[in-house]
């Protein structure tokens, strides 16, 4: 049950209130209310088709909700376009990795660093040659454990490496909150362990909204979990509360029975 | 009043021709994702085949057959030789490749048929004018064009919505891989659709040949207008092509008739004269710009 | 190793261009100088188009409108200066230092307005709306009876520079070469700068760029305007070179020519299009001297380039786009 009083907490970096989105007769987002507190890792789970991606796109500003509000650090950003939300401090990784394939890993990170200058039109200096950028980019690369792969074109990197680079790119922008859309997707067992380790190291330093299918990751990382079924948040609580909640079990087990 | 009616009928006739060209083009773009600039060349090939056939046999029906066969076969040849390699490519390469084909076709046609434009007379049974209203006589040939246009619209509607080919076309537009997985040879489907587009161009060509000049370059003139039609109507939608054709046909026709006078009312005569001629030709582009600014994807979305 | 090869190639190319006037003299072929001048002028347009086509992935099918605008501004001012009729109250001028910046300014302003409108669309709609604007310019140029209409407009003389006699072919050639070098250098700087980084990022993954806080429109518009100014410069130089401007300068076939040149040379390389221009114009010259039906060869060549030349002539050398 989502208790509305709990969410007037002012330590919330991101809050979503009564968000609603329909596509014709399909209600993809059904009065969703949740928040992500400073320093917490809040996982969002749910069966396929629950509307997790639709919710994320609305939070990021790529999709406009039919009703409801998105609040960032207390300010209403529902009408604010995606690029502006990113400038306010909303960082994101995508379900399908979004990187610049012709650029090297380092160039992608440098792009992120340079993007902090927003709309400035510097047409003279080469950001790739900037020593400060270079050092910072290498540091971020080291954080995700890919120091040796910096000068390789992203199109030549392995899937798992690209997922990790994407995290470095998001971090380099120095966001206030990270929205991670299924970072474990397509990762083999070793890569998954590596990624979980990375995400663990990010906890407390960033507020994180983690959308995931991989339950190992969720149970290892989450402070709180929200369960999304058919566009509705049916429960929000700690990992243990979620594990034992009858509605949640029904939603997942019911899902399996239907197969 | 009579002028308005007459110009409206001209607009409908132009719309009929545009629809024949645009429907094929929008199907090709919508289903195969290819910007095919050679579409205008198919129209030209159709007109040339018709003109030459009529000149040598004297029969309009032979001319029609020649146009359909000529344009259709050429379209299929182009698809097999060039276009089939363009399906996954960036629009840039499609534009460039088909641009090369236009240059080739123009030169080939002038080499085969000679540089002097062949004159095709209006067939005897379509000559003269008919009194539609007291005081308004309208050429039979142009009326025939409109009628043929209506038949094409109805025929396409039946084809797309009530035939197996149409179902495949609609399915192929939505999900290429799915149709493939169903065991349908998507390559042959594409070739047939391309051929159908060519056929429609040939039909437009044979109808236009008695009315307009049959010459090299006739394709390019109408090609751009055709693209304007499908962009206004919404790429991939035959309904959109119909709507776009009507809008463009009427705008062009009524614009030519009334814009110069309208400008005279607003601007000093010298400027009105100068700008008038230019704006009349540019009216459809202004229309397209306005539509795109309001509806960036055209009036009818193909995936509604 | 590859990088050094690139510099050698550029140096060689530059040397070749410098040597041409002297080679033309020695071999007694003045038309060679003429051909080379045309190559230089078109190359400026090609480099400019590569900026948005290759680096920005904006397929503008109407860039010739700026070529025409640049040329006609020079032509119209020349007409009024020669005839004595004032143009909006101004008696005109023959000074290149006045006329040329004015022409470029007009191109820039026009590009800003047109670009702002066109960039509201993308994909095939963008291609068509850029074409539409070019057609509008073309038809307006055709309708300007005072300035020759369909037949075009002759210029009595080239514009004048205080320190250089542009009526001398060699002097004009070296001016064009200097401008090509300067313009290309500027474009190289732009492409390697933060602005260029963002423009290329927008091409490769707009979603990623937006989610990093980058707003696409201002960057694309700025690139569009810069590209238009370069193409306008080519038009200005053409008007001076040929002393003749026609509406065909803004025809869609001209836009197609520019696109073909850039793809032939190599998208996203800046130097590739310069080589592409040389090959294209030389080929055109060669083929048309063999047969009047040269288009039957030129056409398929363009088609082949589009089908197989993914990275163009210089793509491998200069590391262009991976299409």
Overview of the molecule:
Chain A has helices at residues 52-60, 82-88, 105-114, 131-143, 159-172, 189-202, 215-221, 239-244, 246-258; strands at residues 12-23, 26-37, 41-45, 67-72, 75-76, 90-93, 177-181, 207-211, 224-229, 232-237. Chain A is α/β, with parallel strands linked by helices and 259 residues long. In chain A, β4 (67-72) and β5 (75-76) form a beta hairpin. In chain A, 44% of the residues are buried. The model of chain A is unreliable at 1-8 (pLDDT under 50). With 304 residues, chain B is mainly α. The longest helix of chain B has 31 residues, at 2-32. Chain B is globular. Chain C is mostly helical. Helices cover 73% and strands 1% of the residues of chain C. Chain C is globular, with a radius of gyration of 19 Å. Chain C starts with a helix and ends in a 5-residue tail after the last helix. Chain A binds chain C through residues 60, 62, 81-84, 86-87, 91-92, 94, 98-103, 107, 110-112, 114-128, 155, 169, 173, and chain C through 189-190, 192-198, 200-201, 204-205, 207-216, 218-219, 222, 321-322.
Descriptive tags:
heterotrimer, A: 259 residues, alpha/beta, six-stranded mixed sheet, 9 helices, disordered N terminus, C: mainly alpha, two-stranded antiparallel ribbon
């Amino acid at each position: 049950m989502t208790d509305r009083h709990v969410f007037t907490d002012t330590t919330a970096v991101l809050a979503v209130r009564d968000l609603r989105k329909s596509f014709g007769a399909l209600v993809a987002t059904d009065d969703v209310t949740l928040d992500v507190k400073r320093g917490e890792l809040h996982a969002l789970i749910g069966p396929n088709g629950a509307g997790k991606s639709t919710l994320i796109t609305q939070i990021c500003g790529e999709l406009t909700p039919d009703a409801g509000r998105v609040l960032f650090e207390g300010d209403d950003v529902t009408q604010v376009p995606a690029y502006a939300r990113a400038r306010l401090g909303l960082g994101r990784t995508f379900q399908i990795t979004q990187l610049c394939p012709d650029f090297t890993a380092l160039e992608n990170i440098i792009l992120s660093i340079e993007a902090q200058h927003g709309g400035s039109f510097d047409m003279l200096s080469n950001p790739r040659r900037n020593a400060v950028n270079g050092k910072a980019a290498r540091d971020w690369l080291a954080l995700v454990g890919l120091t040796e792969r910096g000068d390789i074109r992203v199109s030549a990197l392995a899937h798992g490496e690209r997922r990790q680079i994407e995290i470095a790119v998001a971090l380099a922008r120095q966001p206030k909150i990270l929205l991670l859309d299924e970072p474990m997707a397509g990762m083999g067992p070793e890569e998954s362990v590596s990624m979980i380790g990375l995400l663990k190291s990010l906890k407390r330093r960033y507020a994180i909204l983690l959308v995931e299918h991989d339950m190992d990751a969720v149970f290892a990382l989450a402070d709180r979990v929200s369960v999304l079924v058919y566009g509705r948040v049916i429960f929000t609580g700690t990992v243990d509360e979620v594990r034992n909640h009858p509605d949640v079990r029904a939603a997942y087990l019911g899902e399996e029975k239907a197969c | 009043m009579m002028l308005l009616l007459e110009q409206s009928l001209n607009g409908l006739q132009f719309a009929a021709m545009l629809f024949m060209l645009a429907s094929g083009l929008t199907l090709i773009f919508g289903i195969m994702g290819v910007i095919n600039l050679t579409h205008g060349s198919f129209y030209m090939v159709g007109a040339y085949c018709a003109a030459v056939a009529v000149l040598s046999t004297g029969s309009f029906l032979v001319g029609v057959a020649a146009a359909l066969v000529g344009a259709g076969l050429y379209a299929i040849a182009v698809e097999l030789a060039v276009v089939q390699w363009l399906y996954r490519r960036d629009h840039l390469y499609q534009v460039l490749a088909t641009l090369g084909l236009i240059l080739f076709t123009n030169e080939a046609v002038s080499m085969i048929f000679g540089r002097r434009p062949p004159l095709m007379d209006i067939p005897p049974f379509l000559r003269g004018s008919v009194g539609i209203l007291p005081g308004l006589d309208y050429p039979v040939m142009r009326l025939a064009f409109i009628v043929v246009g209506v038949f094409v619209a109805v025929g396409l509607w039946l084809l797309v919505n009530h035939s197996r080919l149409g179902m495949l076309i609609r399915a192929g537009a939505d999900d290429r891989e799915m149709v493939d997985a169903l065991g349908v040879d998507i390559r042959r489907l594409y070739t047939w659709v391309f051929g159908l587009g060519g056929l429609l161009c040939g039909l437009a060509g044979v109808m236009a040949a008695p009315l307009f000049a049959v010459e090299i370059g006739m394709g390019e003139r109408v090609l751009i207008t055709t693209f304007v039609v499908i962009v206004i109507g919404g790429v991939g939608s035959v309904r959109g092509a119909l709507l776009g054709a009507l809008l463009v046909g009427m705008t062009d026709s009524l614009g030519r008739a009334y814009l110069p006078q309208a400008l005279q009312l607003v601007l000093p005569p010298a400027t009105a004269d100068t700008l008038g001629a230019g704006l009349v030709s540019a009216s459809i582009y202004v229309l397209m710009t306005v539509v795109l600014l309001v509806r960036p994807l055209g009036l009818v979305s193909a995936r509604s | 190793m590859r990088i050094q090869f690139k510099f050698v190639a550029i140096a060689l190319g530059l040397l070749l261009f410098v040597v041409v006037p002297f080679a033309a003299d020695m071999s007694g072929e003045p038309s060679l100088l003429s051909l080379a001048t045309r190559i230089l002028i078109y190359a400026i347009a090609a480099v400019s188009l590569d900026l948005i086509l290759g680096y920005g992935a904006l397929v503008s099918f109407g860039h010739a409108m700026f070529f025409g605008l640049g040329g006609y501004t020079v032509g119209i001012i020349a007409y009024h200066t020669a005839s004595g009729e004032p143009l909006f109250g101004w008696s005109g001028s023959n000074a290149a230092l006045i006329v040329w910046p004015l022409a470029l300014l007009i191109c820039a302003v026009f590009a800003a307005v047109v670009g702002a409108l066109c960039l509201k669309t993308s994909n095939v709609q963008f291609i068509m709306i850029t074409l539409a604007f070019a057609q509008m310019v073309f038809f307006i140029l055709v309708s300007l009876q005072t300035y020759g209409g369909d037949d075009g407009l002759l210029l009595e003389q080239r514009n004048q520079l205080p320190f250089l006699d542009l009526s001398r072919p060699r002097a004009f050639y070296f001016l064009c070469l200097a401008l090509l070098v300067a313009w290309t250098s500027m474009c190289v700087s732009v492409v390697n700068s933060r602005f260029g980084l963002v423009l290329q990022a927008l091409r490769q993954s707009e979603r990623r760029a937006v989610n990093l806080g980058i707003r696409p429109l201002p960057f694309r518009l700025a690139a569009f305007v810069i590209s238009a100014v370069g193409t306008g410069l080519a038009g200005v130089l053409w008007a001076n070179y040929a002393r003749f401007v026609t509406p065909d300068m803004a025809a869609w076939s001209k836009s197609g020519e520019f696109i073909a040149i850039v793809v032939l040379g190599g998208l996203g390389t800046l130097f590739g299009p310069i080589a592409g221009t040389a090959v294209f114009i030389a080929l055109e010259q060669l083929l048309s001297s063999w047969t009047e039906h040269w288009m039957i060869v030129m056409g398929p060549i363009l088609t082949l380039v589009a089908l197989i030349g993914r990275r163009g002539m210089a793509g491998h050398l200069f590391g262009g786009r991976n299409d």
